[in-house]
Amino acid sequence: MGTSLKSKFVFVLVGCTLFGLLPGSTVRGVAQADLNDTGPKTGVRQLIPETPQYGGKARVELDPRRTSSLRFAVIGDYGDNSQEESDVADLVKSWVPDLVLTTGDNNYNEGSAETIDENIGRYYSDFIFPYTGIYGDGAQVNRFFPSLGNHDWRTLDVNNLPYPYLEYFELPGNERYYDFTWGTVHFFILDSDTNEPDGHKDDSVQAGWLQTQLANSIYPWKIVVMHHAPYSSGNHGNTAWMQWPFAAWGADFVLAGHDHTHERISPEGDIPYFVNGLGGRSIYDFQEQPVSGSQIRYNGDYGAMRVDVFSRKIRFQFINRQGEVIDDFSLVKQFEIEYLPLVRKTSP
User: Fold this and answer.
1) What pLDDT, in 10s, does the model give residues 159-171?
2) How far is CA 79 from CA 107, 178, 179, in A?
3) Fewer CB atoms near the end CB (10 Å): N or C, the chain?
């Protein structure tokens, strides 16, 4: 066993969280470890350098057994005021998520102001702030983050913008595409529709915004959400114009809808892509030949995704309205922290 070392330290979090703190936070305390040894240390497993008095970087592996720090649900192609939508909404609420994301088509069939509250607020008003509809009081803070689908773009104002959607929600940025952070996750919500004024291809204004935001993000998990699926084995198939270099730009996952199925796709050398379109509208068939990298394909019933984010682990599950877990996928990361020891004391 190596030499026992006890030292006071200051941790400056760079790309991870520690004890619930966000990147950029400072943590003061005392670490004790055997040099060149790793093991559980109050939820953190540390690799202590031999000369910690000089500062530097230490590889830190956060314990995945800690309680989930964030839970969110993902629904897609859902908003048509049906029994199926109601069943999925009840499923989502039973998970008590911190927030709800959508992969678009929030308001069938024409995206009109007359239907938007009964298609969305009737089932999800508890997550929406500010909420001005007739189905309850709404949330204290906004916990509902939609993306625009092609059906949401069917009712336009004089500026050719989907005004029922833009007036119903109060979202960051220009509200058509935007980003926000929650816990250890940085979310990027895109508008994949061809009507988007800032473009929908990888050389567009919107794409340039995403590339910059991803490059500047200090959060350990970066998730991109949109409607049109870059890859899909469903009826619509691949959406070529949305096959942006997400992995090269720094994204960890891409969530989409449009095809009314559930699918997990891992193209060779790329990040995982999910198709999530079973929120309540209808169910599509799959094409005879699945796309390359397709891992899981399901169209047996309606459902939603439950995502749990832990210290260094993220877990995606697709669960149907009967409560059956159809897909269960996890990814574990290691993060680095920088630290500056203040005093070193060698213990007996």
Assistant:
1) 999 999 999 999 9
2) 5, 21, 22
3) C
